[in-house]
Amino acid sequence: MQLHSGLVVFLCFGGFVHPQTPADLSRLLVTIFDGYNNRIRPIQNQTEPILLDISMYLFSINEVDEVDKKLVTTGYLEVRWTDGLLKWDPNLWNRTVYLTVPQDSIWKPDLVLKNGFTRFEEMGESFNYVFLANDGSVIWKPYEVFETRCSIDITYFPYDTQVHLSSSCRQSNYDCITGKTTKIFPDSSLVLSWLSAV
């Protein structure tokens, strides 16, 4: 009797499983990218801005150069937006609700580090992937070693306190509205303190 109960339960749950195969995903990619151009802003009304949500995650402080007023940090941005041209019905695609695709295959904002130490620099590398959901939601996480300018006052060194406003990015072609948050430092400042034994 126990064997039959187990078999019935297996058959009931087995009817709800719809695994995605590589062939399913390949067909979905071909379908949603048919006619897609990553050089066109992904919104039906091209006069409207695209809303960006940008968060910064700091991993480490690599270098603080008091003389050159340079701060080197490692971290990544999490940038979210909706690509209105890349949507699909998951019920038609074996319940596939998300994909990961190379970042260069879709439109992404051309963010640059505004307070870079030596030059403006585009975010992200070509080998990064983005997360794409069936409702068009995109999550892009370009990670970087950030070299930024940082005003440092060493008047009271080694008992000084330094405040560095978080690195700022800008959307260089002015077609996006950004909401910025810093996940580690909610007041958008980082206080560096050094203590030294005399």
UniProtKB/TrEMBL annotation:
**Molecular function (Gene Ontology), one example:** transmembrane signaling receptor activity
Q: Name one Pfam family in it.
A: Neur_chan_LBD
What name goes with this protein?
Neuronal acetylcholine receptor subunit alpha-6
Give the classification, highest ranks: Eukaryota, Metazoa, Spiralia, Lophotrochozoa, Mollusca
Q: Its GO CC terms?
A: membrane
What parts of the sequence cross the membrane?
none
Keyword list, A-Z:
Receptor
All copies of domain Neurotransmitter-gated ion-channel ligand-binding, residue ranges: 26-162
Task: List the CDD domains.
Answer: LGIC_ECD_cation
